[in-house]
Amino acid sequence: MTENKKWILKKRPIGLVDESNFDFIEEELPAVKDGEILIQNEYLSVDPTQRMWLTDMPGYLPPIQIDEVIRSSGMGKSHSIQK
Description:
By secondary structure, the protein is mainly beta. Helices cover 6% and strands 39% of the residues. It has one domain: Quinone Oxidoreductase, Chain A, domain 1 (Alpha-Beta Complex), CATH 3.90.180.10. It has one helix at residues 49-53; strands spanning 2-9, 22-29, 37-44, 74-81.
């Protein structure tokens, strides 16, 4: 079983951001299909711009919507590849 862990936006922050704004979800991933690759994340970036994405104001990227995954940059290694 391969497990995916993700943070999603549950509600937009008013004032300071706290843990009640997010949900941490663990879920089983389906098997990798032909033409897909599974990347195991090793490093995840946390940047000031993520705070702007939590608002509903447009910026250089669209806001993160409620129940969407918190976007970030990262680095990882290939775990499974299906050709």
